[in-house]
Amino acid sequence: MTQATVVARAAIRKKAKRRRQVVGRVLAHFFLTVGGVLFLFPFFWMISLSMGTMKDIYRIPPRWIPAKVTFRNYPEALFVMPFFRYLGNTLTIAGFNIVGTLFACTMPAYAFARLRWKGRNVIFLLMLATMMVPPQVTLIPMYIIWNRLGVLDTYVPLIVPSFFGWAYLTFLARQYFTTIPFELEDAARVDGCGSFAIFFRIMLPLSLPLMVTLALFSFVGDWNDFFGPLIYLTTPDKYTLQLGLLSFRHQYITNVPCLMAASVLILIPVILIFLFGQTYFIRSVVLSGLKG
Amino acid sequence: MGQEATSAIRAVRAKRGRRALSPRAQEALVAYLFASPWLLHLLLLTALPVLSSLYFSFCSYQIVKPAKFWGPQNYVRLFTEDTRFIKSLGNTLFMVIVGVPLGMIFGMSIALLMNTKVKGRAIYRTMYYMPSQVSGVALAFLWGWLLNPQFGVVSNILWKFGIKPPLWIASPKWVKPSFIMMGLWGVGGSMIIWLAGLQSIPGVFYEAAEIDGANRWQRFWRITMPLLSPTTFFVLTTGIIGSFKIFTQAYVLTSGGPADSSLFYTLYLYQNAFNYFKMGYASAMAWVLFVIIMSATLLQLRFARAWVYYEAVR
Amino acid sequence: MDKKLTRRALLRYAGLVTSSVLLAACAPKVVEVEKIVEKEVTKVIKEVVKETVIVAGTPQVVEKEVTKIVKEIVKEEVVVEKGRDIFQGDLILWHPWGTGYEGGAYPFLRNSEHFPKLYPGVNFINMYESSRDKYLAAIAAGSPPDLLLVNAIAIPALAERGALMCLDPFIKRDNFDMAQYWAMALDQCSWKDRTYAISHHPDVRLMYYDQVVMEEVGLDPDKEPASWDEAYEWGMAMSKQEGGRYVRFGWVPTWTSGPWTNHYMIANGVERLDRTGRLATFHTDEAEEAMAYVLKCTDDICGGRDNVEEFQEVHATPDGKGPYWMFPWHRTGMLLYGNWLYCPIGIIDPDQPINNGSLPGGPAAPGVRHVFHGGTMVAIPSDAKHWELAWEFLKYMDSQDYGNGAQFIQECGDDIAGNVAEATAAYAMDFPGRPKVIEMFKMAESYSYLPSPISYEWEDEMYRMADRILLREQTIPEALATSQKTIQKALDEFWATV
Asked: Are B289 and A134 inside 8 Å of each other by CB?
């Protein structure tokens, strides 16, 4: 075989590979787009509803685009429900909870994943067990406890639990920690690092995708939670955004245009956070230098 | 003999330093410190409500009146007289057995797609994630719309294939599959978890495999799946636990109908607790569910050793 | 547990209240209050008694000492509270109607301004996200709101379990005129002849006739069907198909607000429970006849249950399915529905020609026509903190200043048609159907729910029975038998815990 043939064959293979890549990419784009449109379809409807009037919306047969497109519902949604106050409330709760979650879920997870201690498996099982009891039956005892502590109609029942961790997220963190190889830790121990140093200087920095995930879950959990605020809050000034949504359901009819407008507005921060937080989902550069 | 041993131990201890603990004990202490938030959670926030509900399950508790102890009557009635209990358990098992695998396959597939170097990846991810963020009230409206026989996308697709769409949530046969569809629509939430797991697999492995001549399929099965198994285990376990507790959509959309075909276990529990004032009975139901889920989870944990690959766990 | 005041306490209390009102009018001051309550206490007495007993397996007769347990209910006076300001502090009302400006919710929005004008020093808090689990948890924890808006269906359930305060002593003390309310409103608010709430927003389920459609098919638009058979014929006449698909249903008897099995059983003369309220007696021939009639209508007029469901889905609105928004678009000819149907009518077609009426009695009870009532009312939970002030509010609800006094309710003011967005206040105050609707309120005697402590279980079971019948999962006698067994079990279980 001559040098030229080898080079030519390599070039052909490369071209074929690139063509396959392009075809693959086009196919991927196609499926993703089709799927994406299907997934997003209800949002088109949501936005369409939010730009109509009550009479348009309840037209039979319904129309995709309302006869009279109006943007009136957005300002109305912002002021019928005190949107900005509720936004502030929700952000406060979510903010505290993110801090609480990040510490209280990662630390026990490290203990479950890396340290050996008596009762580890039992406590882990108990943690899983807490996820298995339906909340409906613990509602009344919890309510009574918070009542005795005198913290009903405050944010305490909504914030304090996150500083003690969530079973679901702790479990997630534990699984993540088990994927981090021992070598780094062993090297650090040889250098004389204690567990705390290892945790804060090695595990956490390597767990950026996990931390972002935990923060995101915590945030959207609070953003979308209406059961907690519904049960524990009574003063309307303290309500959160989701409770504010409920206020569009009136005695006889639901003010659907405003409800949809408000829902769209509430979705926007989550979308933005997700869109821009994705840079942290990119593979952490540190890991790839590991095996070298 | 005892005296010798004691003095020997004392000598060893003196060598190590009086206050020093064995490495084992030291690790345990550190572990307890790390785990303290969760331990406190168990003691302060969980123990009392959970044990209360256990107590209530042996009582007649009508919520607005104090609880009256009356022994295991609730459990007896549950297992001998209650046909709705059996029905609700059956409905829920259907959701678990069908819904969880489908959700996992769907979620993993989407995450794999999202993990490739497609341009505009961020936007696609957002598109698939958004539906999982729509909550109760709005979600009920939107799904009523999706499934509408005349205008809904799902029904339109079926029409194009010449199939008459079913009545979805108004049909006893189709109401559970409809809920599964709704669940799949919201799979974007779990997509994040899969992505986090996928991201933790070092790219180096793939590069090395490609050099060794492995094709796409082999790379998937030999590298991705094993290294993803902790995540898979997580999604499976929490998915099963979550599916057993399915509640909100049925509560909002069907109230368990038609004819109890979407009566899920926790919905029936809720009805007993807050509609029929039978909180004791509902608590008994909760503990039965707990035993069921715990058994399922223990089974999974036992089998986990066979297929879950933990890179680093002691 | 209901609280009754003894005569002595009444006098003392009346004196205290009068003086405290006078004092409060001048300036906020501390007033001493004693709340004396009669409690029913169950005393258990063990008696040892000599009884003659036959020894098992032998003809021997022996005297044995047997311990008998006797329960005695004794009325005791208990002093509950002392030394508290009555007319100061937060007065809290819970209702589930959001911040709407329609229906009964509107006046609540003004309470925080208007009520403190009468009682300075009172902060009226209007909590508009009430829900069952929330208020039950609050009652269980011993810190309920002072005022609770509940549905009529909740009154027997809560009152029998002692969660609500009996209002009769207050009514008597203040000479509150209950006769100004409609009979049905009084019925709803009481349980076992005791009043537990003040009516806030009663409603009825009555017949709506689409006069345009009636004229189209040649029926007299001002007439009502005299019997079930006539209703069936009119329904058949008003149904319309185009190209093999239904575009209008003449009558869908299953489209009522609430489980339809209730309404048609009652209209055919069925007694759902016996006089003691502990025996389910609804599985009768009349009930079977009623169910069969509805099934026949659904099959003949509407083409079957599945067809009805599909019709609903095709005409689904963002609010869901059902006839609520369909009637103003002339998709049904007749409808048995709540008076609040004027809400969508006011929004879509305020000038729609409508006749209102009542459901004719069934073949087994043809003489009586039926209008079914339900509604909401405001009650005071037993452990409410400011129960005296709460009662003042209940009286205030009667006033014109509140905007929804008894008289106003009786004139179907302000709320029937809703005030959201398009509907105008003028329409709400004077919609065309008002005189007829008022007549129906007066006529309403039949309960749209079951007045019993197991009212919720009844409701759920009725929905299930309806499904089973329509889906043909069981024959009608089987469905009724199953449901009667379930209801009887629920009744037995409940009364055993009392």
From this structure: yes
Within-domain flag for B23: yes
The secondary structure element, H or E, covering residue C156 is helix C154-160
| Positions in chain C whose pLDDT score sits under 50 | 1-5, 19-33, 82-83, 414-424
Instruction: Please say whether the beta carbons of B269 and A137 come within 8 A.
Output: yes
Residues of A whose CB is below 8 A from C348: 55, 58
From chain C residues 77-136, the ones with a CB under 8 A of any chain A CB are 92, 94, 97-105, 125-129, 131, 133-134, 136
Residue of A nearest to B184 (CA): A39
Interface test with B, best of C130, C313, C315, C492 (most B CBs within 10 A): C313
Domain co-membership, C116 together with C195: yes
Within this chain, do residues C190 and C297 fall inside the same structural domain, yes or no? no
Question: What pLDDT sits at residue A53?
Answer: 83
Distance from CA of B277 to the nearest CA of C (A): 9
Partner A contacted by C344 (CB < 8 A): yes
Residue B87 sits in the same domain as residue B9 = no
Tally of structural domains, chain C: 3
Task: Show which subunits contact B, needing at least 3 CB pairs below 8 angstroms.
Answer: A, C
**What would the pLDDT profile of A139-191 be if each residue is shown by its tens digit?**
999 999 999 999 999 999 999 999 998 999 999 899 888 878 888 888 888 88
What is the ipTM metric for this complex?
0.84
Q: Are residues C270 and C344 in the same domain?
A: yes
Tell me which residue in B148, B167, B257 faces C306 most closely, judged by beta carbons: B167
A210/B41 Cβ within 8 A: no
Residue of chain A whose alpha carbon sits nearest to that of B185: A39
Binary contact (A141, B49; C-beta < 8 A): yes
Domain that holds residue C60: 33-82
Kindly report, residue by residue over B190-244, the tens digit of the pLDDT.
Answer: 888 888 788 778 788 888 888 888 787 888 888 888 888 888 999 999 999 999 9
Please give the full DSSP string across chain A, using - where no structure is assigned. --HHHHHHHHHHHHHHHHHHHHHHHHHHHHHHHHHHHHHHHHHHHHHHHHTS-HHHHT-SS--SS-SS---THHHHHHHHTTHHHHHHHHHHHHHHHHHHHHHHHHHHHHHHHH---TTHHHHHHHHHHHTTS-HHHHHHHHHHHHHHTT-TTSSHHHHGGGGG--HHHHHHHHHHHTTS-HHHHHHHHHTT--HHHHIIIIIHHHTHHHHHHHHHHHHHHHHH--HHHHHH--SGGG--HHHHHHTTB-SS-B-HHHHHHHHHHHHHHHHHHHHHHGGGGSPPHHHHTTT-
Task: Read off the pTM.
Answer: 0.85
Which residues form the domain of B299? 75-307
**pLDDT at residue A282 tops 60:** no
Mean pLDDT of B62-85: 93
The answer on C475 and C438 residing in a single domain is no
Domain count for chain B, please give it: 2
Residues on chain A touching B118 (C-beta within 8 angstroms): 25, 28-29, 32
Closest Cα in chain B to C489: B81
Residue B8 covered by a domain:
yes
Q: Determine, yes or no, domain membership for C1.
A: no
Q: Is C319 on the interface with A (CB under 8 A)?
A: yes
Structural contact between residues A290 and B202, judged by C-beta atoms closer than 8 angstroms: yes
Task: Verify that B118 and B267 share a domain, yes or no.
Answer: yes
On whether any CB of chain C is under 8 Å from the CB of B143, the answer is no
Distance from C-alpha of A182 to C-alpha of A177, rounded to nearest angstrom: 10
Chain B residues 212-271 with CB within 8 Å of chain A: 227, 230-231, 233-234, 237-238, 241, 244-245, 247, 266, 269-270
CA distance C279 to chain A (A): 31
**Neighbouring residues of B235: CB distance < 8 A, sequence distance ≥ 6:** B104, B107, B190, B193, B194
